[in-house]
Design a protein that fits this description.
Strand 3 and strand 4 form a beta hairpin. By secondary structure, the protein is α+β, with helices and mostly antiparallel strands. The protein has ten helices and five strands; from the N terminus they run αβαβββααβαααααα. It has two domains: about 130 residues, 2-Layer Sandwich (Beta Polymerase, domain 2); about 100 residues, no CATH class.
Length: about 250
């Protein structure tokens, strides 16, 4: 039977609980597996009857295949395995667009952790995020990016072509949110909506960034593009700071 935090979990179907118990029995019998954490929608209590089961494994040796999908009838189990050191390296990304796996550990549920390694990784993820400073080359990337794209976004609005506006609003959402996390010195979260929504309120620059992003995501294409430009006006002064470590 599942123990610990999982006892209070809400499973969308009995099959999800049974599959997780099957996985746990396998992990306990495998000396290579040092810890297992449940992540994704099931860990957040937002899973549906058709949701996959997402599991993070800590293994003793670097696996030849990091990611694996295992079918359990109608339910798919997505497993990602890395060594303890391998996971730690994923907490503080240094390239544009790379996401931090630290959020998965912070939001996850330990289902198997006999040596405390999973708990240690949760602490390491929190420390990595608390001390993270966006690398200067990422700031440089976004300064250059918006110097070219902001005028084009203005031009799209002026031309007043509905399809062009819809396309621009959709395409600009991702780099704009990436920029917000960068100026806030926060590692980029997963594109999974649940992770994004959970950590949106971590943003404090500009102070109303979470509300403006939510408004943008619920707006018509024209209003969304207008909102993106308004948000850029608030963000760019921070992005243009000559010293990326100094924020207002």
């Amino acid at each position: 039977m599942l123990k610990g935090d999982t006892e209070e979990m809400r499973f969308p179907t009995a099959r999800h609980r049974n599959v997780l118990e099957e996985c746990l029995a396998t992990y306990r019998a495998d000396a290579e597996i040092l810890a297992a954490l449940l992540s994704g929608s099931l860990a957040r209590g937002a899973a549906r009857s058709d949701s996959d089961i997402d599991l993070l494994l800590v293994v003793s040796h670097e696996p030849s295949v990091t990611a694996q999908q295992v079918d359990h009838g109608p339910i798919v189990v997505d497993q990602i395995a890395r060594t303890e050191e391998g996971w730690r390296k994923q907490f503080s990304p240094s390239r544009v667009g790379d996401e931090s796996w630290g959020y998965a550990f912070l939001d996850g549920v330990a289902i198997y952790d006999p040596h405390g390694i999973g708990a240690d990784l949760v602490v390491a993820a929190a420390e990595a995020h608390a001390t993270y400073r966006t690398p200067n080359h990422i700031w440089t990337h976004f300064r250059t990016f918006w110097s070219h794209l902001q005028p084009k976004m203005d031009a799209v609005l002026r031309r007043d072509d509905a399809i062009e506006i819809g396309w621009a609003a959709a395409v600009m959402t991702s780099p704009l949110t990436d920029t917000l996390w960068a100026v806030n010195h926060r590692p980029l979260p997963s594109r999974d909506l649940g992770c994004f929504q959970r950590h949106l309120d971590d943003l404090t620059i500009p102070p109303d960034a979470p509300a403006l992003v939510r408004e943008m995501l619920q707006s018509s294409p024209r209003d969304a593009l207008t909102g993106q430009l308004r948000l850029l006006e608030l963000v760019l002064p921070h992005l243009r700071e000559s010293d990326a470590d100094q924020l207002d």
